[in-house]
Design goal:
This protein is mainly α and about 1000 residues long. The protein contains 49 helices and no strands. The chain is elongated and about 230 Å long. Keywords: mRNA processing, Nucleus.
């Protein structure tokens, strides 16, 4: 191939170039097609060769390669475009002939492709330019170029129009019906319009005078002139002069003998009856002068002689025929033979006359057919416009009233077609009449309405042209279609009953085109809570069944996910979640949900969530639960389908305002329960908690663990987060029951410093009182007794005494956990501790207040405290005295066991004990008094003065009422509410 191409490039000889190019063409197109792409550009370089034959050969190569391998057309069509306008007519004609086949091959190639590539678009652009260029060549001065251009345009018309349904289709035929409807670069409608335009151009071309027609006319004119000249050269015979000479000759020689012979000879030719011609033309001689009669006879004979001479050949033939008759029948005479021949001639003349008459009648019939047809427009007077419109309206009304007749007659379809055509193409009065007829009974006439819609759609898209009888449209086609569709929607909306939703669904699903106004109408209908959920379901069906309007209807449905009305909002969210399972919509729905979630970062709610269609006609400046739900509802609903979204919620949460955060924490409860503690995304969120979203993460964990024990994985992630990144003890609250006893006790000092409500929730989790109704068995790393003991063991440096007091009070409030036995165990354990806990006596007093039956047990504890020299710990000693004061007279026996110094101090600290104690002792019998040391009696009687010790109120007055009920705790309202509690 390289050698051939090099030789063709170097050689000057035209035949060598052509031969080598043909060899390369044969090899590349038929034997080694895989090499075509490599050598195509090298061959196309010969398209600019000086030799016209070489360029013509290249044109043939372009044609064959394009037909066999259409993928090379984008590279060759530009060359073909240049060759079609070549200066040499031979090359141009060859290029025009190849253009038709290239166009056909390119259309087949593009129509059969699954995806339209940029090469196809480029090729189609150049082919469109080629068609325009060839259209301009139909006026070329060259007959051959003009003929090829016309043939090309004829091919364009055949390819770009629909075939005749009655004609058989060949295997290689290609027409407009073979082009897919989804092909964007070559739409059927545009191709058909282009073909119609080309057809109009060809009609004008054939109807106008061109060079060919002018040449033919000139040739015909010359031939006519030549014929006239030839006719003019023939001399015209001088018949009158000949007759006059013959007349003189006969008159001089006519004698009686000759006249007699003539009469005798003529008798054989005389007919049996006198003919009408003889009767009409014969004129007898009025004179008796022989010379005059001779002259008359001579004149007649001369005339007959000259007329007979012209028919000599014919007469000779007749004589020959007579001789043949005589030969065949010798018995007849010459006269009889001549008479028989005369009769045959008469019969032939009659036949000729009859045939001539028939031909004349035929020519008259043709002439009558060629006569100008009668036109009613020329002979009738046009009616005024008002009368025509009134008559048309009357006709339409009659058609409208003939519904039953048309149904019985089997022409209901034809009647509907007539009505829809009239309504779509005639004046507004007709439209109004038909529309009123349809809206009067929408249930039974929806088919007619849909037919009218399709008629308007055909006019709108140009599928159907208006006839000359139709009135000019008063408005644009899209306005007429839009008005009709919206009017039908409004009419259906006025219907009451269950048929309304079915009719509306059918109208929207079967209409050929849904306009923007119709979409807006459906949006308003679906936002009406009185209409129920059927319009919303219709929106979902439109999203699925209307691919071209899919995004429009999806946007309407998404708007309803933020509606003020809870029923509409929840139904819309449910439908959108169903659509979320469709792959082509999931990304769009997710982006919409994330976009609205991002609005929660704003200080004020965006205007987009307000409006009549959203159920919020008035714009608000502050975030409310309603506006927050509008932005968050769809997002939370998608969490169960796509758990990855939870990370975006945590990121946005950090930028929310305090009010919005509070609402979000309350709204996430329901959706988050569907995640489950084993969710990988939840565990990842806990592990990588964004800074500032700790409250949200804690709330989510709290919701998941509220009615079930935390999983080991969740506890491990929370523990790791608490130990490494976030030191907020609130993170531990949801997973307290999953921690160890040691970890719980270590966290208690921080936990009790939280809001009292949070502390109460902590104790509820530890004590198992937060999910009593869930049916889930409670498991806690610490028992109620151990918890109360741990509270008494908290180092004062880690928590204030007042905070510990409030925490212990919360414990005693849970009577279900702290029973009489539990409290006794706690007091027993606390009493055995060394040193004694500071709050020991406060706990004893509270226990006695809750369970008065423990008084005996308390007295035993007080006695044991004396043995442990309780007075060495001032705060515990003060509590001891208070307990004795509140438990009198049972405590008198314990008080009497105190050493004198401590007794004196106790009576000084509680002066109201002296008198009752003295009375109690005075009531003893003498033998009982003998057991009381005198020093004790002296103290009781006040004989031994004692120094007062510094007062230290371990249990401030007012902590307990007279009936020994626990104090009401103060709640610090400035501290935020804990997770899970409002």
């Amino acid at each position: 191939i390289v050698e051939w191409l090099n030789e063709a490039s170097i050689s000057i000889a035209e035949d060598i170039k052509i031969t080598n190019i043909c060899k390369v063409q044969e090899l590349l197109l038929n034997k080694e097609p895989h090499l075509l792409d490599s050598y195509l550009n090298d061959i196309l370089q010969f398209s600019v060769d000086r030799s016209s034959e070489v360029r013509k050969t290249i044109t043939g190569f372009i044609e064959e390669s394009g037909i066999k391998f259409p993928e090379v057309i984008p590279r060759t069509v530009q060359i073909l475009l240049r060759l079609a306008s070549d200066e040499t007519s031979v090359v141009a004609k060859r290029a025009l002939r190849a253009s038709g086949r290239i166009l056909r091959a390119a259309l087949k190639w593009i129509a059969s492709a699954t995806v339209v590539t940029t090469d196809m678009e480029l090729a189609w652009t150049h082919l469109s330019a080629l068609k325009v260029q060839i259209i301009n060549l139909i006026d070329s001065d060259n007959d051959g170029i003009r003929t090829q251009a016309v043939k090309f345009l004829e091919g364009v018309i055949l390819i770009q129009t629909y075939p005749d349904p009655d004609s058989p289709k060949k295997p290689d035929d290609f027409s407009l019906e073979d082009i897919p409807l989804t092909l964007k670069i070559a739409r059927r409608r545009k191709l058909e319009e282009e073909a119609n335009h080309v057809m109009d151009l060809l009609i004008k071309f054939h109807g106008s005078p061109h060079e060919i027609a002018a040449t033919a006319a000139k040739r015909v004119k010359v031939e006519v002139i030549i014929d006239e000249a030839e006719v003019a050269t023939v001399p015209t015979p001088k018949l009158p002069d000949l007759i006059e000479l013959s007349e003189s000759f006969i008159a001089e020689r006519l004698s009686v003998e000759i006249a007699t012979d003539l009469v005798m000879d003529s008798m054989a030719w005389v007919p049996d009856t006198m003919t009408t011609i003889f009767q009409r033309e014969y004129q007898p001689t009025a004179t008796t002068d022989i010379n005059i009669q001779r002259q008359t006879i001579a004149k007649l004979l001369a005339t007959q002689i000259k007329q007979t001479k012209a028919k000599k050949n014919k007469r000779d033939k007749e004589e020959d025929a007579v001789m043949e008759d005589l030969i065949k029948n010798p018995t007849i005479s010459v006269a009889e033979a001549k008479r028989e021949r005369k009769r045959e001639k008469d019969r032939e003349k009659e036949k000729e006359a009859k045939a001539s008459l028939e031909a004349h009648e035929k020519s008259l019939a043709k002439a009558r057919n060629r006569m100008k047809a009668l036109k009613l427009v020329e002979v009738t007077k046009p009616l005024p416009k008002e009368i025509k419109e009134r008559m048309l309206l009357m006709a339409v009304n009659r058609i409208l009233l003939s519904e039953k007749t048309a149904v019985f007659g089997g022409i209901a379809t034809i009647r509907s077609k007539i009505l829809t055509t009239l309504a779509a193409t005639f004046n507004p009065y007709i439209k109004e009449a038909v529309l009123r007829y349809i809206t009067d009974d929408m249930r039974n006439r929806l088919d007619l309405a849909l037919g009218w819609l399709y008629e308007e759609y055909a006019l709108l898209q140009g599928f159907q042209r208006r006839t000359t009888l139709c009135t000019k449209p008063q408005e644009a086609p899209h306005q007429a279609y839009n008005f009709l569709l919206c009017t039908l929607v409004s009419a259906i909306d006025l219907i009451q009953g269950k048929d309304r939703d079915a009719l509306l669904s059918r109208l929207y699903l079967e209409a050929p085109l849904i306009t923007e106004d119709a979409v807006e109408a459906l949006k308003m209908v679906s936002s009406d809570e009185t209409r129920g959920l059927a319009p919303l379901q219709l929106l979902k069906e439109m999203v699925v069944r209307r691919p071209t309007k899919q995004l429009v209807f999806l946007n309407v449905l998404l708007c309803h996910t933020g509606h003020e009305n809870n029923t509409i909002r929840e139904a819309a969210i449910q439908l959108v979640c169903q659509l979320y399972s469709r792959a082509e919509l999931s990304k769009l729905i997710e982006e919409y949900a994330v976009l609205y979630l991002g609005f929660l970062r704003l200080h004020n709610p965006p205007e987009i969530v307000f409006g009549q269609d959203r159920g919020r006609p008035q714009i608000e400046s502050l975030w409310t639960e309603s506006t927050t739900r509008a932005c968050l509802g769809l997002y939370l609903a998608l969490l169960s389908e796509h758990q990855d979204l939870i990370h975006e919620l945590a990121r946005v949460y950090t930028s929310m305002g305090a009010d919005v955060k509070r609402i979000v924490l309350r709204l996430v409860e329901g959706p988050v329960r569907s995640l489950g503690m084993g969710s990988p995304q939840l565990l990842a969120l806990v592990e990588n908690c964004p800074k500032g979203s700790e409250t949200l993460v804690t709330r989510i964990i709290h919701i998941l663990t509220e009615k079930s024990a935390p999983s080991a994985e969740l506890v491990a992630r929370v523990r790791e987060l608490y130990q490494t990144r976030v030191s907020d003890v609130r993170f531990l609250i949801p997973v307290l029951n999953g921690l160890t006893k040691k970890e719980v006790i270590a966290a208690l000092p921080k936990l009790i410093k939280l809001n009292p409500i949070v502390v109460k929730e902590v104790f509820n989790r530890l004590l198992g009182t937060h999910n009593n109704d869930s049916g889930v068995p409670h498991t806690s790393p610490i028992t109620p007794a151990e918890l109360l003991i741990a509270l008494h063991s908290i180092d004062p440096s880690k928590a204030e005494l007042k905070t510990v007091i409030k925490a212990t009070s919360l414990c005693f409030a849970e009577k279900q956990a702290y029973t009489q036995e539990t409290v006794a165990v706690v007091m027993q354990h606390l009493m055995e501790m060394t040193p004694l806990p500071t709050l020991l006596m406060r706990t004893v007093i509270q226990s006695l207040a809750l369970y008065p039956r423990l008084s005996g047990f308390v007295m035993n504890i007080l006695q044991r405290l004396i043995l442990k020299q309780v007075w060495k710990q001032p705060k515990v000693w003060e509590g001891f005295v208070k307990c004795c004061e509140r438990t009198q007279p049972q405590s008198f026996a314990v008080i009497l066991q105190l050493p004198p110094a401590q007794l004196a101090e106790a009576l000084r600290m509680a002066s109201n004990l002296r008198a009752p104690l003295l009375a109690h002792v005075e009531a003893f019998a003498e033998n009982q008094k003998a057991h009381i040391p005198q020093s004790i009696m002296d103290v009781i009687q006040g004989k031994v003065p004692c120094d007062m010790l510094d007062e230290f109120d371990i249990a401030p007055r007012g902590d307990y009422s007279n009936d020994q009920k626990p104090d009401t705790m103060e709640i610090d309202l400035s501290e935020p509410a804990p997770p899970g509690l409002d």
